[in-house]
Write a structure and sequence with these properties.
The chain is of the alpha/beta class. It is built from 12 helices and 12 strands. It folds into 2 domains: 174 residues, Rossmann fold; 166 residues, Rossmann fold. It has a 7-stranded mixed sheet with strand order 2-3-1-4-5-6-7, sandwiched between helices. A 5-stranded parallel sheet has the order 9-8-10-11-12, sandwiched between helices. This is Ribitol xylosyltransferase 1.
């Protein structure tokens, strides 16, 4: 009996060992082929919420993103649809009005890239030859620029030309005159029918050299678009043109971003520029130091003007505009300066010294709000001051403005600036069409 019990216990122990070995086999080897499937399911199960979270973040950003020129884009789209219908319904044999722009001054890049929002091929700013095309209404524009665009060595696609010239100083005037004589030769040989000029004028409005070329004085230039507050402006054949940004320093086209609009800016104001002795700029520096506001603003003054930017200096300047609520715009040789338009590009409110400078600039027969009458007439949302002694009070008020108010103010500035450029583009085209097309009918 004892032997039987002993055998029975041994049998149970052996059975237990076999069962344990079998269980171990199943655990370590039996499900290996199914583990990846379970794991991948686990990843997929966790991935869906992650994608949903990302989708919500993107949709939230999309719903809150703000387009400062949405209204202008809608109007432009409607205008293009209308234009397309007009083209489809146009009688055969008639062609659209075409104009070629010869960009022989850096201000031409402001016209093409910033106002017309046109592209250039190639994109390399150092290229010898660059060109682009754009359509505004029924007018087809082509644009040529670069050192290789020289008289007699480029194709002339149309009889209607806008010539962009620099008349700021004597050497530039000599170069501009050569281009005008070239255009005159083309007019005499009937290769050109109509010519308009966009002129970067002299800062003192000393532009008498071009008078003899105007059609009303016996010349051949039908229309003149000129920078600064020239007393010649009559809105008939002479129009004011904005100075724009310093494209000759490679200041870029700036796209509004979420952070540009909504981020807190660490500096109250900025001024990066040349400070001339005994100038209002010197007075500005002294006022900032007296109240200690120079510690709250991004200030970088130099004693000598530098015509060229380095990559580092351009980046510093752009950062100053982006990170400042206000941009201080003291007068130089002229009240109007590139800094005003560059501040607008970054949503930094220009604080403009609203005083007339020396020279021949001033009111005209049709405008009596100089200086900066072009900007004022279009309701520029700037802070205008007559004396920098007003600045401390402005900065004290600025310290009390909450972020939400600043965001709204930035939106209004960016909207205004985009609308300003769109208005210029449409008026420019209307003036050219009315002058060139009407003359073609006679």
């Amino acid at each position: 009996m004892r032997l039987t019990r002993k055998r029975f216990c041994s049998f149970l122990i052996a059975l237990y060992c076999l069962f344990s070995l079998y269980a171990a086999y199943l655990v370590f080897f039996g499900h290996r082929s199914r583990v990846p499937t379970a794991t991948s399911r686990g990843f997929r199960k966790g991935a869906a919420p992650a994608r949903e979270r990302r989708g919500r973040e993107q949709s939230t950003l999309g719903s809150e993103e703000w387009n400062p020129w949405e209204e202008d884009e809608k109007n432009e789209q409607q205008r293009r649809v209308k234009t397309s219908l007009q083209i489809l319904n146009k009688p055969k044999g008639k062609t659209d009005h075409s104009i070629q722009i010869w960009g022989k001054a850096a201000i031409g890049l402001y016209l093409w890239e910033h106002i017309f929002e046109g592209l250039l091929d190639p994109t390399d700013v150092t290229a010898q030859w660059r060109e682009g095309k754009s359509i505004v209404g029924n007018t087809h524009y082509s644009f040529l620029t670069g050192p290789s665009v020289v008289p007699g060595y480029f194709p002339i696609d149309t009889g209607n030309v806008v010539l962009v010239l620099n008349g700021r100083e004597k050497a530039k005037i000599s170069h501009a005159t050569q281009w005008l004589f070239f255009a005159q030769t083309l007019m005499k040989t009937q290769k050109l029918q109509h010519l308009a000029v966009v002129l970067l004028g002299n800062e003192l409005c000393d532009n008498d050299w071009i008078l003899k070329f105007l059609k009303k004085n016996g010349g051949f230039v039908e229309l003149l678009f000129i920078t600064y507050d020239s007393p010649w402006i009559n809105d008939v054949d002479i129009f004011q043109w904005p100075l724009g940004v310093a494209t000759y320093r490679n200041f870029p086209v700036v796209e509004a971003s979420w952070s540009m609009l909504h981020d807190e800016r660490p500096y109250l104001c900025n001024f990066l520029g040349t400070v001339y002795e005994n100038s209002s700029r010197q007075a500005l520096m002294n006022i900032l130091k007296q109240d200690g506001n120079d510690k709250l603003c991004w200030i970088s003054a130099r004693q000598q003007w530098q015509p060229q930017e380095t990559n580092v200096s351009l980046k510093n300047y752009q950062d100053a505009l982006l990170h400042s609520d206000l941009t201080l715009c003291p007068v130089g040789v002229n009240t109007e300066c590139y800094r005003i338009y560059e501040a607008c590009s970054y949503g930094s409110i220009p604080v403009v010294e609203d005083v007339m400078t020396g020279g021949n600039c001033g009111n005209s027969s049709v405008h009596h709000n100089a200086p900066l009458q072009l900007l004022k007439s279009r309701g520029a949302p700037f802070i205008f001051i007559k004396n920098w002694k007003e600045l401390p009070a402005i900065l004290e008020k600025e310290k009390t403005i909450v972020l939400q108010e600043k965001i709204q103010r930035r939106k209004e500035l960016l909207q205004w600036y985009q609308h300003f450029k769109t208005e210029l583009k449409m008026k420019f085209t209307d003036v050219l069409e009315n002058s060139f097309l009407m003359n073609n009918k006679h």
